[in-house]
Amino acid sequence: MLGSNEGFVFILHSAFRLLHFPAMVITIDGPAGTGKSTVANAVAERLSFDFLDTGAMYRAVGLAAIRREIDLQDTRELTFIARLTRLEFDWSHHPPKLLLNGEPVGHLLRASDCTRAASFVAVVPAIREMLVAQQRQIGLDRGNVVTEGRDQGSVVFPNAELKIYLDAAPQERARRRVAQLRSRGEIVDYNEVLSGIVVRDKRDATRPVGPLTVPPDAAVIDSTDLTEPQVVDLIVARAEALRVPAGTSS
Questions:
Q1: How many angstroms separate the CA atoms of 46 and 223, rounded?
Q2: Are 25 and 139 in contact (CB under 8 A)?
């Protein structure tokens, strides 16, 4: 989290880049557990872009449903809750704070129950339609954005300047997820996490709306044997190669 002075400097730096470079949307898609959020946030920070965590938006709607004790298989009730839910980002912070009806909830969204709830929320067409519209508006409003999710390059921003598909072997993704959850004090079993990832991969790839797919014009990065900084370096290098200062020819 940035202090007030640091936040002001970050905003000024972002404004300077937006004035001197064409706006760019960078999409990072891929299955669960590939580190999309962490990588996208780091890339955004390196480039002085805004970071849009779309997965957090679905998790936040899931959290709202959990709090109201809604049956997660009742799509009508889920849609009703989503329509009542106000999602906003506080862009004065980096990464931006997600507010659920005015309440900062980022620290709650990576818990297992929110992850499970988000998987139900994400397959409801009416909810996806609402959140996709919000994501596109954010892209228009903010200009330079690094956005991550399952369908950012294929559905939400099909004309994005740079598309990345981040992948990794299921076993490695399970190992990372277990380490992440255990660092938060949760008791988890590796085999159960791996099984859940395999099931989720199949569900995400076959769902009727916003399925997980590799956009035809995306650069595929397999992070199984790469460190997070190495992945970030690869994406930043691609982005910088595409950046052309305003008023100059390519």
A1: 19
A2: yes
Confidence band for 5, pLDDT divided at 50, 70 and 90: low
Contact present, 26 and 46 (Cβ < 8 Å):
no
The 10s digit of each residue's pLDDT in 117-137 is: 998 999 899 999 999 999 999
For residue 135, the one-letter residue type is Q
pLDDT-based confidence at residue 21 (cuts at 50, 70, 90): low
User: What's the 3-state SS for 177-212?
Assistant: HHHHHHHCCCCCCHHHHHHHHHHHHHHHHHCCCCCC
pLDDT over 60 (residue 11): no
Residues in the chain, how many?
250
Predicted local confidence at residue 204, as pLDDT: 85
Q: Note if the bond before 215 is cis, omega within 30 degrees.
A: no
Tell me which of 247 and 67 has the higher pLDDT: 67
Integer angstrom CA distances of residue 200 from 60, 82, 205, 211: 19, 22, 8, 11
Reading across the β-sheet that carries 97-100, which strands appear in turn? 87-90, 97-100, 103-104
**Per-residue pLDDT reduced to its tens digit, 178-192:** 998 889 888 899 999
Q: Is 69 exposed, middle or buried (0-12, 13-18, 19+ CB in 10 A)?
A: exposed
DSSP reduced 3-state for 28? strand
CA-closest candidate to residue 85, choices 123, 53, 131: 131
- Asked whether the beta carbons of 203 and 68 are under 8 A apart, the reply is no
Q: What is the pLDDT of residue 1?
A: 38
The beta-strand segments (E) located in the chain are 25-29, 50-53, 87-90, 97-100, 103-104, 145-149, 162-167, 219-222
